[in-house]
Design goal:
Layout (H helix, E strand, L loop, with lengths): L4 H4 L10 H22 L3 E4 L14 H5 L3 E6 L2 H13 L5 E4 L13 E7 L8 H10 L1 E10 L4 H9 L1 H7 L7 H10 L2 E9 L11 H7 L17 H4 L6 H6 L3 H5 L2 H7 L2 E8 L4
Parallel strand pairs: 1-2, 1-4, 2-3, 4-5
Antiparallel strand pairs: 5-7, 6-7
Length: 279
Amino acid sequence: MAIPILKNWEKYFINIDEGLGSSYERIVLNNKLKSICNHFNISTILEAPSFGFTGLSGINSMSLAKNGKKITLVDNDKKRIELINKVWEKMELPLTIEYLKEFNSLSFADDSFDLSWNFSALWFVDDLSIFLKELTRVTSQAILLCVPNRSGIGYISQKILGFKELKKYLKEENILPRNIKREMKNNNWMLIDNNYIDCPPWPDIGMPKEKFLKIFGLSWLIKKKEHIPMTIMDYYSGKDPDFPKKMMSHSWFEKKAPKILKTFWAHHKYFLFIPEKRR
């Protein structure tokens, strides 16, 4: 859940050090998006809202852009939009990004995008019903919605530690699977796939492990060693072409763990919808 990012998201534009957790998360997410795009022959993509709970903002769809997809982002912070644009310009990748104060109305024509999606961002939407009605209106083929796994040990621990901020800044009801499924069904979209995703061999603590263990008086468990910055941007820039391979070396747990274990350990869940008219 990583509630602190609500206040410190800007720091990642200064020092792009996302750590192992977010780096692994980005690669497994890239793989999922790639498979969806290949299956549905996707060309145009909307990510809205684009701000979620992970490191550097606005780069969730960058791998798709590098594969020739046309990307549009929607964000509700003008300063963040400016910084996101600079990151994409540095990578020499085309991007359309629009500012919306609220997400109740999307300024796009019907069926403007083949795929729409978001990652850990639905709880920033004021009204889930209105937003999903708009998202289905502007999308023609598929919608992917990724939400935190509320049954996960990491989520539960972060909720306890950040309960007041959760209630103040986020709409937790927006990430409840039953609410998402109900609203999508009301819009005549059917669920064709859902599962746990982002299930590495470490818990979803949402903060440096040193800080997490210190809270519980367990700092002695960590051996001090030199910190090595980690970011997927090194892969996108060509500096570290083996980055995906290195991240996927940790995927053995995600591939082999039984679903019952993922229920309590996976960091996120995804829901893939298509219009009922495709039946």
